[in-house]
Fold this sequence. Notes:
About 50% of the residues lie in helices and about 10% in strands. The longest helix is centred in the last third of the chain and has 38 residues, at about 800-840. Among the domains are: about 1-170 and about 255-275, Rossmann fold; about 330-485, Ribonuclease H-like superfamily/Ribonuclease H (Nucleotidyltransferase, domain 5, 2-Layer Sandwich); about 515-620, Taq DNA Polymerase, Chain T, domain 4 (Up-down Bundle); about 680-810, DNA polymerase, domain 1 (Orthogonal Bundle), CATH 1.10.150.20. The protein contains 38 helices and 24 strands. A six-stranded mixed sheet has the order 3-2-1-4-5-6. A six-stranded mixed sheet has the order 7-10-9-8-11-12, with helices on both faces. The N and C termini lie far apart (about 85 Å).
Amino acid sequence: MKKLVLIDSNALVHRAFHALPPTLTSPKGVLTNAVYGFTSVLIKMIKDLKPDYIAATYDLAGPTFRHEEFAEYKAHREKAPDELYAQIPLTKEVLKAFGIPIYEKQGFEADDVIGALAEMVKKNPPAGGIQVIIVTGDLDTLQLVDGEKVVVFTLRKGLTDTMVYDEKEVRNRYGLNPNQVIDYKGLKGDPSDNIPGVPGIGDKTASALIQKYGSIEGLYKKIEKAGSKEKLSPKLIEKLIENKDLALFSKKLSTIIRDIPIDFSLEKSDWRNNLNQNELERTLKELGFYSLIKRFNEIGSGVVRLESQHEDSLPTLALDSNQATEKSETPTASLKTKKDIEKALGIMAKSRELVFDIQEGVFGFTNDGKNLFSFNLEDLKIAKADLTGDDKFWKILVSVFEDEKILKYGHDLKNLSKIFIKEKIHIKGINFDTKIAAYLIKADRKDYELKDLYFNEIGEELQLGMEARLLGIWKLKNFLWEKLKSDNLVKVFEEIEMPLVQILAEMELVGIKIDLNSLKILSKSVNKETVKLESEIYKLAGIEFNINSPNQMKDILFERLQIKGKVRKTGKGALSTAAPELEKLSAEHPIIDLILKYRELQKLKTTYIEPFPKLVDIKTNRLHTTLNQTGTVTGRLSSQDPNLQNIPIKTELGQEFRKAFISSPGCKLVSFDYSQLELRIAAHISGDKKMTAAFKRGEDIHTRTAAEIFEVAPENVTPTMRREAKTLNFGLLYGMGLLGFQRASGVSRDRAREFIDRYMTEFSGIAKYMEAMKLKAKKEGFVETIFGRRRYLPEINSGMFQLVAQAERMAINMPVQGTEADLLKISMIRINDLIHKEYEDGGISMLLQIHDEILFEVKNNLIAKFKTQAKDIMENVHQLDVPLVIDAKSGNNWRDMEAI
Length: 900
């Protein structure tokens, strides 16, 4: 039996638009979330249903016959966002490329067109029979289900949870046959379409009545004949009789018209024959849907396969990294002997630019994107071990990679640099890292694997093997370079990001020394305190329970102890026991503070104290974290394996933990920490006169803010006033609203509104900056730092309240936080230059960059001189309208540090 799929396009487009975030955009910046979801469902449908024929239907703008008969039809519906309507023509382009015809009829809805098409095919089926499958996002077409002839394929939740309704499933849902669904709607109504039905009749009553009487007409015939003798309540009979016309009219509105004249033929719907392969590939690539090309190609036989490469694309490479296929026009040198390797390095030495890579023990390079060379690293080690006075191999390798005139390109050069540093080779001339370039262009990607970047940016599958990687990096480098230029990101890339690559590699290899004995002592102390807290919590609760279980915690606090207070609910409707919510209840019962302290101990114990000893190098007692250059959207560095960014510093236990980070003998840890860097940047960017003047006078900015909003002299500012002013200063830059400030400060809503209004009045420059950044994001689609680093915010024009609000917060914060990251990175680069220039014999190592702080290990005799130099670099890293101030400290461990 053949299969014809009829697509309710409008229903799918609406479902896709609301199911996917408005962050999906084409390479040209056009919003494509609805188009992507629609196309994704289309491909899933082709894969799952394997249709022979496909036709699509759309609603046309303007009233239908239902609007003419009932003015209130769908009148309550809010107009869909313009961003949704703008994507409908794009979905039609996709359908056209798939070879799928589109059917529309003025004055009728898509459901009516579907009904007419289904009826035509049922009356004139092809030889062998045909099944009609209606693909939709709602249940309006269930009335069309007809045995095996017509079924409905619909989306239940999101875009992947699907269900097929045949007669059995319709009966399971409503207890009715498909042709009775319109009678059911006639009684119950349909709120989604504003169809009234009989007032007071709900799902169960409507279903029971139609089951008993077969139809609305059968129901009224019976009750009008039998009257009060019919076994129904008098009130129900009265309700039905009074609203007979409304019931019949609602049934009519709900009924899909099946006799619309439409010029239809199965031949036009034979999508495989009509599919425009080149047009489909062009359309999907233009929209940036490379992953959908891949999914479409994975469907398998019976479907035309899209070409994944253009005429100028990469040659097909063999899986064997030492040989190219016969089709490959790229000469590949497989190097086995030391003589071959030395000859290849001779070619390398004459190069001006070089792409290199190391994968699974194989080293490869190309100097022109055409000639490729690769050899096993074991051969390199053998050659190194066999060095004689006349052997030039190692010298050539060192000279090439330490020659800054030979530009080096690669993917993830930080990790490649670490391999070379371990061999005592410090690469110079690092020029282009495709991973870093891709991050700078689009900082919110999920990952930066070469194969994924290549597919997403170039639109082609990256083949396996070293040669494919080298050619892929070469091509991707050229492509990304053009994007960096068009986005005005070259300066940030060349002067901030690329110089940092080698620095981070060295920092990761150096690591930081850990006092394991100190961790053991702290672990015992934490375990002892945990047991004590458990006992106190159980005593107050009057029962032992699992303190780490949110469900048990909820039962204890809100049911057993009957603690009252305003706390938010979880997604499942239960009262939340998250820390911010429990903090609101701290005054309600002494158990709350104990629970919060217990959780703090547990987090410190499980996140840091217990895992850290396993991560420490047993030979050196040094911990080596990974400093992620592509881990945040603002440009800040992040730390992982382990994460050192989140070590608590304000609590006593957090400080005890920092005591385990120590210096080597003869050295001290030296810290350089910017003072209130974000607020200084905010003052500079906004040009706020009062904030700028306060920083220039060297005042405490939080005291000055408190004095302004509370209208008191600075000397009369209380600690509470200063704390609330500090919350405002930082909170507003992070997009904190009225409720956020109220929650953080603990003041009433009216008081919170008064504080914010006063702040915006007194610091009008900050208020204007906030509005200017939101406007810039809406007009240009991005905001940027003072150095040009960008953050794209397509969500700000999504029309969806929560996403718009989130994007506005990011628009306010990113220029400040991003500039903060840029200043720290530039400081790191300049201090690193200082170290390599004036301290070549060693004695100073850059260890960590955490928040606004850079941590070093410095020999005791160098501290005074280095402190002066580093402090001068950081305070003069860039000329702002306000002074930059550094707090310098040193000590034998990270906790016990004193000002220097």
